[in-house]
Structure formats: structure tokens, C-alpha cells
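Why do we care about 3D structure at all? Because function follows from shape, and shape follows, mostly, from sequence. That is the central idea of this module. The next example makes it concrete: a single protein chain, its amino acid sequence, and then its structure expressed as C-alpha cells.
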Amino acid sequence: MAEVNWHRMPALAALRAFEATARSGGFSAAARQLNVTHAAVAQQVRALEDALGVPLVWRDGRALRLTPEGEKLGSALNAGFALMQEGLTALTAEARQRPLTVTLPPAFAAEWLMPRLARFWKRHPDISLSLLPDHRVVDLQHSGVAMGIRFGDGHWPGVRAEFLTAAPQVVVGAPELLGGRSSLTLAEMTALPWVRERDWPEQLDWLKSIGLQPEALRFTEFPNEELALSAVREGLGLHLE
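And the structure:
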């Protein structure tokens, strides 16, 4: 890759103004293309001539012709800007083809998102999704993940959060562990063992919100929700679901 000496490079605005002038054949046409005034284009071209030390256009009343140096520079700039546009177009097309990566809790993915995916793709057939079902909170700014769906109050620094839907949580347990009770007091829930998935910080926040103290609870941790629910069915503890 060739090194560019930016210290010797004229102002980009001047190069753009001259390229448009050379391609369109005049200051007025270039001004319309660039959405600026005729005087602004003429001023940029004069500044470029001063910077290069050579005349680029001949002015004869309202007529304007390129000098031989102007012809060469106009062709070079046109080719250069066209190459830049080609590279940018290819880059944005590649970005559009990449799937939208979303991290979200596994249970939410299975119970809420999956039943709605067919409807989403029917409305947005051009959007590809890559789902990452995981309780772990991902750093969206440095992980390459575009979006996260999490339980919480929406106050997370460094990201923009929008409310999606309410997600009521319930405490579940095996019948033999509950002993026929349909409800438990905070003291009873504190006295019983608990089952939880590892790397799910929102669970602890929810327990605090109902008055429990997570540090006072006896947890058995499992690496995923499937194992945690199996443990709950076996009566090993209460679980937030």
C-alpha cells in the first residue's frame, strides 16, 4: 500500500471542486452537483491553482477550458474518486450482508423470540440474524455484537436502551420441596435451597427487588438453564423462571 504524504496534499474540498468542474465543464454545473455556490467552486479552484503553482483552467468571459495540466489532473482525480466510491460501495454492501448479531437470555429466545421469528422475517426478508443465547452480559462496544436483549431497568452506561416487553418472573420449585404450599413468605424462601444459572446477574437484581438478600441464600449453580431446571424438578431448590 503506497504511503500518502498528506502534508503536501492540497485541501480535499479544492480537489473535489476541481474534479466536478473538469467533469461537468464549468463552475455553475459543478456548483449544482456539489450543492454550493458558483463563487465557492471558483474560489476553491483558484486556491488549488495557487497551491500547485500551475494554471488549471483558462477563463474567457463565461467560457472555461481546461489547461493541459488541468486535463491531466481532472482525469487523475476522477479515477481516484471513482476508486474511492467503488471501495466504499463494496464495504457498505458487505456490511449489509453481515447478519445482525443479537445476544439474549436462552429462555427468552426460546419462549418469546422464536414464535415471532417467522413474522419478523416475513416483514424484513433482507435482515439476517445471528442469535447468541447466553445469560452472560456482553460488552456491546467491544465484542462485535450489535444488540443485546436483557432483563433490567434499562439503565446501562454507554448504550442506548429501549423497552421491549414486560417479562414477569416467578419462583418455581418441585412439589415435594414446597410441601403442598402454593405460596412462600420471604423467610420461607430464604430458608430453602436455591438453584441458579451461572453468569446471570439480572437474577440477583430481581431477587433483591422482591425483598430477598441473595447473599443470605444457599445457591447451587449450574452452567445453563437446562441443567438448572432438571435440578429444580428433582427438588434440589427453588428457581427464578
